[in-house]
Design goal:
15 helices, about 40% helix, 9-stranded parallel sheet, binds flavin mononucleotide, TIM Barrel, alpha/beta, about 350 residues
């Protein structure tokens, strides 16, 4: 370990808060709990809600650098690129495998009047899906360090004129047999990345199996830039455990935030050593679910906004008693009226005729 201040491993017997601001390049994050980007789930509507609940950093879903270069008017990309002040600080995540695409896309994004407000440009070297790795992008770059370095350098050179940091999100490696995550992390730092986020699974694990946090600790020990650990952090205790076990500067929460944006407030309280917060009650869950659907409907039109919110409704209802019938209805809702009725019925199912609550 170096003596860089970010490498100070918190001791388990001290009561120093684990919730800390983080410096990324020349910029500051208000805290160290990030919403991990998830395509199809973490759109601007959800990102703003997570930010309100205390997420210190959010990130767009992955956007193709080549698409930005070759899609006139960004007809296909804009929906995924659009960011709003309510989500700040928000990074824009690009994927691709051609350094020239990154050179073009980073400059184009940072020249744009809205997108230039991005906190950072994040490069996706993490995505495992065949459609992405088949083009040499995403986690496929973990098998080609020279190309990964050229991609990062190209993005860093393009972003430097705008003083915007470039961050990199990657996995443990392609597979357990070939993974050398500290070497990859050093390459990313030497290529100019200002912050690293490690999803502690290999590509061949996809999203299954347990994340190996020991890899996060090895990455943290290998570099001086801030490191965010990711994988299986889903509540206050797991956020505390991951940061204590690894010495990472921050934690990124993905699936644990789906239908549960409150996880950021809960995790922040745990990192500060405060008493656990009460879980959100059914009214808060119903109101937040409805807000998501309404805002998506306002952005995309009612039919599409409602259809694209079915999944999030299921996430908000998940794990509650009497949810089975509600879930069946949620899977086929078509209009805001139906969503309102569904959530009102769901909420009232928690109260008996005397107004007593069955479940919160
Ligand atoms: C449905 C889904 C979509 C995802 N999309 C992205 C993405 O666009 N960009 C990215 O960097 N990671 C993406 N990820 C990975 C997550 O950001 C995160 O690294 C992973 O889910 C592990 O964290 P968790 O255990 O907290 O969920 C996605 C994950 C899921 C489940």
């Amino acid at each position: 370990m170096t003596d860089h201040p970010y490498n100070e491993m918190p001791r388990s017997d001290d009561n120093q808060s684990l919730f800390r601001p983080v410096a990324v390049g020349g910029r500051g994050l208000p805290g160290n709990l990030a919403l991990a980007p998830m395509a199809g789930a973490t759109d601007g509507v959800f990102r703003a809600i997570c930010r309100e609940q205390g997420a210190s950093l959010t990130c767009t879903e992955l956007v193709s650098a080549r698409g930005i270069r070759h899609d006139p008017g960004w007809a296909r990309s804009w929906r995924y690129l659009a960011i709003t002040p309510a989500e700040q600080p928000v990074a824009i995540q690009l994927f691709g495998a051609d350094p020239d695409d990154f050179d073009y896309a980073v400059r184009a994004v940072l020249e744009h009047p809205v997108l230039s407000s991005a906190f950072a440009i994040d490069i996706n070297m993490v995505c495992p899906v065949p459609k992405v790795v088949g083009t040499g992008a995403g986690s496929a770059l973990m098998r080609d360090l020279p190309l990964a370095a050229r991609v990062i350098r190209s993005a860093v050179a393009a972003a430097s004129g705008y003083e915007v940091p470039v961050t990199v999100k990657f996995r443990t490696g392609w597979d357990a047999a070939t993974a050398d995550t500290p070497a990859f992390a050093r390459m990313a730092e030497q290529s100019g990345a200002a912050m690293l986020m490690v999803h502690a699974r290999t590509r061949d694990m996809m999203y299954a199996g347990q994340a190996d946090w020991s890899v996060i600790a090895r990455v943290k020990a290998a570099v001086s830039v801030p490191v965010f650990g990711n994988g299986d952090v889903r509540d206050g205790p797991s956020a505390v455990a991951m940061l204590r076990e690894t010495g990472a500067d921050g934690a990124a929460i993905g699936r644990g935030a789906l239908g549960n944006p409150w996880v950021f407030a809960h995790a922040a309280a745990a990192l500060r050593g405060e008493a656990p917060l009460p879980p959100p009650d059914v009214a808060a869950r119903a109101q937040t679910a409805l807000r998501e659907v309404r805002e998506r409907a306002a952005n995309l039109g009612e039919a599409r906004g409602v259809r694209e919110s079915r999944k999030s409704l299921l996430w908000y209802l998940h794990g509650t008693p009497r949810a089975a019938e509600t879930r069946r209805r949620a899977a086929v809702v078509e209009s805001l009226k139906e969503v309102e009725r569904l959530l009102a019925d769901w909420e009232s199912s928690f109260f008996d005729k005397n107004g007593a609550v069955h479940f919160t």
